[in-house]
Every structure is written in structure tokens, then in C-alpha cells.
Write a structure and sequence with these properties.
By secondary structure, the chain is an alpha+beta fold. The protein contains ten helices and 16 strands. It has a six-stranded mixed sheet, sandwiched between helices. A five-stranded antiparallel sheet has the order 2-6-7-1-16. The protein has a three-stranded antiparallel sheet with strand order 3-4-5. Strand 9 (184-192) and strand 10 (198-206) form a beta hairpin. Zinc ion binds at residues 327, 329-330, 332, 344, 346, 348. The site of zinc ion has 7 residues, from loops.
Length: 411
């Protein structure tokens, strides 16, 4: 089952009944966290068994389903807390700071035509929340194949989870093979012709701003650390805030990049080949390490993968070993040091990123990637004079700002 959270702004302020529900919910979650830590239980059922009766007495007016949902939220937070502890990362007592509440899908109603959430507060008291509905939101509300998941209410917005069965991957008739770099995705688009001839052109999705943003925030954090060296707590708070801002800004851009790639893949019925970054080791040199920080690339892959799953586009991840070193024409592994160009003694020369993407594609084909009508990829079919732009920063300026969303996968 695929789940996608869509953010809706509220058309007006939260009614006071709903605000007090949010406060009560937050209180319940925080109390549940403390009590569960004391009693050493962490599962939702465990917490429910432990606390339901007392909570029922302490929050007599709260809708029972909301109460159970507060246990679920607490269980989720405890899970993260235990993970942090296991990994030896410092963390204080967990708690929910922001006002929030979460309702399971049986615990609220949504009028999908009008865009109105009907939320029970307690017996005999319900509130209606009018949502701001853009064209983007309309596409989710109108899609009848999507069922509703949980509802998260925040003071100024709600997040509605839409769910659907994972669609069967569309039979691919072409392939996008992409090498992921710090500032761009570079690769090739390969399509079989009617007479069995294969065309292969260069594709590019450039996101130079991501590295610039990372650099700028890194410098800002370093300055903060120097300036506030006398106050470590303050430094941590300020740096954390910087980090959140950085992630947010980069995330936003990566979503646009992924959309560019997926629109192209959808139009051309392409399967997508990416390298598996999972095994990539960090360099021991710290400076280099930071410069090559992998998280935006991992994040980009994550976004591409779940957006592709939602659309039924096949994504194949392959082991990138030797992808930057092997000659796709003859298979040799020349031991030359690399510049921007890959050169082999057989005479093959190619931009090294494009070269890597060809190797990724060959690996994917050898692992059984199939394309409708067959695909005989030969590096020689590469057309040197054509570049297809999947995304460039100027394209973000043109696209509509339509809220953020994210998808998770549940079993
Ligand atoms: Zn060669």
C-alpha cells in the first residue's frame, strides 16, 4: 500500500474547540510517553493496555478514538527515541512540542467535493474545517481510486494521507539511465527504434543550487559555533534551526528535480536506472566528506523512487561498482586517473558521467531489465550533439507553488 501525505492550508482560523482538542491531545501524548518510559512498554497495544483506563478517567470528554490515536503517536515517538539511543546519539526525554493531533481514518469525515473535514471533538461536538483547495489538491480529492488514511491537524494546516494499492509498473518502452552527482543527474535516454535500431541521447537534470545552499548553511553554522562558543545549548538550538532550514530548502528543490525526471519518464514510458547509493562509503577525510555529503543524493533517489512507485514507473537500482571505471565499449578497466573525460585504450572517449550512466544501464540489462520490443544498447548509438534537459533551475520559477507532500510505504 502506498501512502501520500498532502498538506492543506485551512481557509480560516482553527475553531476554539479544535484548538483545545489539540492541546489535550498533545498533553495525552506527552503523558503517554512518560508513563510508557517508566513502565518500559513501547508498543501501541502495550501502551493502550497500560493507560487506557486511567486516561479515560482523566480525559473524560475526549473522543475515545482520539485517545487511542494519542497512544499510537506516542509509540511512534518512542520508537524513534529508542533508535537514537541505540545509535548512541544524545537525546533528552522525548516530547511533543508543537500543538498537533492525529485522527485515524474512521475518526473523521472528509467531504471530498467541498473540501471540508468533519472532526468529532467529543460526544455531541464536532467541528468543520474548510480546506484551501488548489488544482493540485483537487487532483487528489477527485481521484476515487485513492482511499483516506490518517488526518493530522496542526494549528494552521492539516495533512491528509491518501492511500492506494501500488500500481503495476507500466511496461517500459525506453530507459532513462542516470548517474547521480553533486550538482546534477547526468545520463542517457535510450529508445528502441521500429527497425530494431536504438537511439541514445544525453539527458541532464541540473541542480547546482543544492550544493550552493549546503555550502552557505555550512558556513553559517561554523560562524554560529564560533560566535556562540560560550553557550553550547544556544549553539545547538541555532545550528539545529539552520539545519532544518537547509533541509527544507534543499528538499523543495529536489522535489522539482524529481518531478522533471518523472514527467519525462511518464511521457516516454521509460524505466529509470539509478545507482544504489546504499553501499557507498564515506571518505575518511572530513573536509572531503562534507563536500561530498551524500544525503541530498540519497534523498533525491528516495523522492524519485516513491513518486515513481505512485505513478507505476519502474525504477531499477544497480550496484555502481566500476560504473565510473569501466569502458562500456570494450569492457576494459583502464587504470588512468580521471579528468572530466573517460578515455580507454580501445579509442572510446566519453564524458565520465555519461560513461558511468552507460555502465549502469549495461549492468541493469545484464540483471534482466526488459523493455517492450527489446533493447539492444550499444554505446556507439550515442548521439553526441543532442542534450535533453529534464530539469534546470529556471524551470522551478515557472512551476506552480502547490504545497508540499511526501509519501511513505506501508506494508
Ligand atoms: Zn574500451
Amino acid at each position: 500500500m502506498l501512502v501520500k501525505g498532502v498538506v492543506f492550508r485551512l481557509a480560516s482560523d482553527l475553531p476554539p474547540e479544535a484548538s483545545s482538542l489539540l492541546e489535550e491531545f498533545r498533553l495525552a501524548v506527552n503523558k503517554a510517553i512518560r508513563a510508557s518510559l517508566d513502565a518500559r512498554v513501547s508498543s501501541r497495544n502495550g501502551i493502550s493496555k497500560l493507560l487506557y483506563r486511567t486516561f479515560r478517567e482523566e480525559h473524560p470528554s475526549m473522543y475515545a478514538k482520539h485517545l487511542v490515536s494519542s497512544f499510537e503517536v506516542a509509540a511512534g515517538i518512542l520508537k524513534n527515541y529508542r533508535k537514537r539511543l541505540r545509535n548512541g546519539r544524545p537525546c533528552g526525554m522525548p516530547f511533543v512540542k508543537r500543538l498537533m493531533m492525529k485522527a485515524e481514518n474512521q475518526a473523521y469525515k472528509l467531504d471530498r467535493t467541498e473540501g471540508i473535514v468533519d472532526l468529532p471533538i467529543r460526544a455531541g461536538c464536532r467541528v468543520k474545517l474548510r480546506l484551501v483547495v488548489s488544482r493540485y489538491h483537487r487532483s487528489y480529492l477527485n481521484d476515487e481510486t485513492l482511499s483516506l488514511g490518517s488526518l493530522t491537524v496542526l494549528p494552521d494546516r492539516v495533512i491528509i494521507a491518501f492511500r492506494k494499492e501500488a500500481p503495476r509498473p507500466i511496461a517500459a518502452s525506453s530507459v532513462l539511465s542516470l548517474d547521480t552527482n553533486e550538482r546534477s543527474l547526468d545520463g542517457i535516454f535510450v529508445e528502441g527504434g521500429r527497425k530494431g535500431d536504438t537511439s541514445c541521447i544525453q539527458v541532464k537534470a541540473a541542480f547546482p543550487e543544492v550544493a550552493i545552499i549546503q555550502q552557505r548553511h555550512h558556513e553559517r553554522r561554523r560562524r554560529l559555533q564560533k560566535k556562540k562558543a560560550h553557550d553550547r545549548r544556544l549553539t545547538r538550538v541555532l545550528c539545529g534551526r539552520e539545519g532544518a532550514r537547509e533541509h527544507h530548502r534543499i528538499d523543495y528543490r529536489l522535489h522539482h528535480v524529481a518531478n522533471g525526471v518523472l514527467e519525462f519518464a511518464e511521457d516516454h514510458k521509460s524505466a529509470i536506472v539509478l545507482e544504489d547509493l546504499g553501499n557507498m562509503r564515506m571518505n575518511k577525510n572530513k573536509i572531503l566528506n562534507r563536500r561530498l555529503s551524500l544525503w541530498p543524493r540519497r534523498k533525491l533517489h528516495q523522492i524519485i523512487e516513491y513518486k515513481a512507485a505512485w505513478k507505476g514507473i519502474l525504477v531499477i537500482k544497480v550496484d555502481p561498482r566500476y560504473s565510473s571505471k569501466r569502458c562500456p565499449a570494450c569492457g576494459r578497466i583502464p587504470d588512468s586517473r580521471m579528468g572530466t573525460e573517460f578515455a580507454c585504450e580501445c579509442g572510446w572517449r566519453m564524458d565520465r558521467h555519461i560513461n558511468a550512466s552507460m555502465n549502469l544501464l549495461q549492468t541493469a540489462i545484464s540483471k534482466g531489465l526488459e523493455v517492450a520490443g527489446g533493447l539492444r544498447f550499444s554505446p556507439g548509438a550515442f548521439q553526441h550533439d543532442v542534450v535533453m534537459t529534464l530539469y534546470e533551475p529556471a524551470m522551478a520559477a515557472r512551476s506552480e507553488l502547490n504545497g508540499t507532500s511526501h509519501i511513505g510505504v506501508t506494508s
